[in-house]
Amino acid sequence: MAHLLGAEALHLEYPTRIVFDSVTLGVDAGDMIGIVGRNGDGKSSLLGMLAGTIEPDSGRVTYRGGMRLGMLSQRDTMDSEATVGYSVVGDMDDHEWARDAKARDIIAGLIADLDWHATIGSLSGGQRRRVALAALLIGDWDLLILDEPTNHLDVDGISWLAKHIKNRWSKNSGALLLVTHDRWFLDEVCTKTWEVHDQIVEPFEGGYAAYILQRVERDRINAATEQKRQNLMRKELAWLRRGAPARTSKPKFRIEAANQLIADVPEVRNPIELKKMATARLGKDVVDLLDVSLSFGDQQILDNVTWRIGPGERTGILGPNGAGKSTLLSLISGELEPDEGRVKRGKTVKVGVLDQQFKELDAIGGQKVREVLSESKTSFNIEGKDFTPAQLLERLGFAKEHLSARVKELSGGQKRRLQLLLLLMSEPNVIILDEPTNDVDSDMLAAMEDLLDSWPATLIVVSHDRYLLERVTDQQYAILDHGLRHVPGGVDEYLKLRAEGAKSGGSGKSGGASKSGGSSSNSGSAGANSPADSGADALSGAEARAAKKEVSSIERRMDKLSKRIARAHDEMADHDQTDFEGLQKLTSSLQELKDEMTELEERWLEASEALDV
């Protein structure tokens, strides 16, 4: 493989610290490299040195002759007076770029919703970012350097970008250097991982999952080495105190392969125990959205949505940008009231919201972190153990020295950690997370997930981070065509529904029927949005009547099954919570009902699609 870039003995130093010390590395054609590390350890600085935008204090970076390098940095350097079209394709006429299949695909995948003639200055920050990414990808590059390219992209956009990068170059040609906190994207795209830490860059083979396994093994070996050194020191100390040492056997350390490290690790969550604790804190009633509709001006956001949220449920909300995910969260939290329908909340419900801004931190910006924590409770019990606020903050990766910093002086990632801690310290029994991954590195995300695994509350998450969404939630719902529907297949099923909707000219028509498939959700009336009537003309009269009859039959069975699922939930809530064997039987019965509902939903989709032909 051709060598594209080489870095030798790079040293970078800022007035307060050394960022890199004698770093040597190289990039060959075909390399797809993801760069991970804590915020502030130098990931963006490394990209800057390799791209030539940052001059190292010593060392050098060399490039293959004629190599074309393109970079997307986190800085916005676009001309606010230029139009979207000019920023992306320059002076090319429409027929010129329209002949290029790659250009058409990039424009459709990233900026199809933007006005081609709008000025850059009239766009939001996220829209400007997408335009900058599209302008970069249209060019021909041997090496692409991308710094947080998934910021401001929704799940559809991230999936499209991953597919584009994987198919952009032929085998063993072209290379990628990527910094992102989106771990699904790292795993999907990258074949190598560089970890930036302690002034060095450490290479690993494989994507994010392979990197984690190798890092765990590395840390285990380091811990074993340190334990061995400590044992040796204790032995030396005993010899000095007692004289000649007695003959003793040396400690033996068992070396295991990386996959054996996780062989006996329990499930990340105990759903029965969490539901038991959540039910005890909440009761049976949490939040019910009943026939809810909401519009902003002439724009319909939600239409006739019904959703019953049960105690201890962990739910992810999917949908394209602008579909109404944050609006749905505001209805649940009580910040918004519906135009039609009603929102019913249980008497014991206490909602905690982690929003995309830092609203609650603005009022305490002048206080020190230590002072903020001192105003809260002195201890919190998690999984039978007592934690102080400072210990919880340390568990979230917050260094002790930052306890003396003022809130306004914290970085974005540190503010996010403090924001999450303050949310948890208020002890809500319903937690709403709206894009919690903003300004957070991968280590912090892992710590956040670990803490949320043991927190007994109903959890509702909106995030474009597919890895986090699938990691912390047990079920997913999607907002499609102003309705809410259960997607038993998770993100993959959602993307399939979106693709089918795009083919039929809608935003997700096959998913538009607000149909319940979950244990405690009944997402609206199927008849209101059902596509069953939209394509009846494509069949003969008899066939159409038979298809409609089948759809109606399935819908009646689904309604009955939804009531049985609701009753099963009531039985679980009323059951003796100390009878774990009985709870397990009820859980198994409930899962069978859910599986039956999933099969009915698939049949309903097939029958509805037949009417659309």
UniProtKB/TrEMBL annotation:
<feature type="region of interest" description="Disordered">
    <location>
        <begin position="502"/>
        <end position="556"/>
    </location>
</feature>
<keyword id="KW-0547">Nucleotide-binding</keyword>
<dbReference type="GO" id="GO:0003677">
    <property type="term" value="F:DNA binding"/>
</dbReference>
<dbReference type="InterPro" id="IPR037118">
    <property type="entry name" value="Val-tRNA_synth_C_sf"/>
</dbReference>
<feature type="compositionally biased region" description="Basic and acidic residues">
    <location>
        <begin position="545"/>
        <end position="556"/>
    </location>
</feature>
<feature type="compositionally biased region" description="Gly residues">
    <location>
        <begin position="503"/>
        <end position="515"/>
    </location>
</feature>
<dbReference type="InterPro" id="IPR003439">
    <property type="entry name" value="ABC_transporter-like_ATP-bd"/>
</dbReference>
<dbReference type="InterPro" id="IPR051309">
    <property type="entry name" value="ABCF_ATPase"/>
</dbReference>
<keyword id="KW-0067">ATP-binding</keyword>
<protein>
    <submittedName>
        <fullName>ABC transporter ATP-binding protein</fullName>
    </submittedName>
</protein>
<dbReference type="InterPro" id="IPR032524">
    <property type="entry name" value="ABC_tran_C"/>
</dbReference>
<feature type="domain" description="ABC transporter">
    <location>
        <begin position="5"/>
        <end position="223"/>
    </location>
</feature>
<dbReference type="InterPro" id="IPR027417">
    <property type="entry name" value="P-loop_NTPase"/>
</dbReference>
<dbReference type="InterPro" id="IPR017871">
    <property type="entry name" value="ABC_transporter-like_CS"/>
</dbReference>
<feature type="domain" description="ABC transporter">
    <location>
        <begin position="287"/>
        <end position="507"/>
    </location>
</feature>
<feature type="compositionally biased region" description="Low complexity">
    <location>
        <begin position="516"/>
        <end position="538"/>
    </location>
</feature>
<dbReference type="GO" id="GO:0016887">
    <property type="term" value="F:ATP hydrolysis activity"/>
</dbReference>
<dbReference type="Pfam" id="PF00005">
    <property type="entry name" value="ABC_tran"/>
</dbReference>
<dbReference type="InterPro" id="IPR003593">
    <property type="entry name" value="AAA+_ATPase"/>
</dbReference>
<dbReference type="GO" id="GO:0005524">
    <property type="term" value="F:ATP binding"/>
</dbReference>
<dbReference type="Pfam" id="PF16326">
    <property type="entry name" value="ABC_tran_CTD"/>
</dbReference>
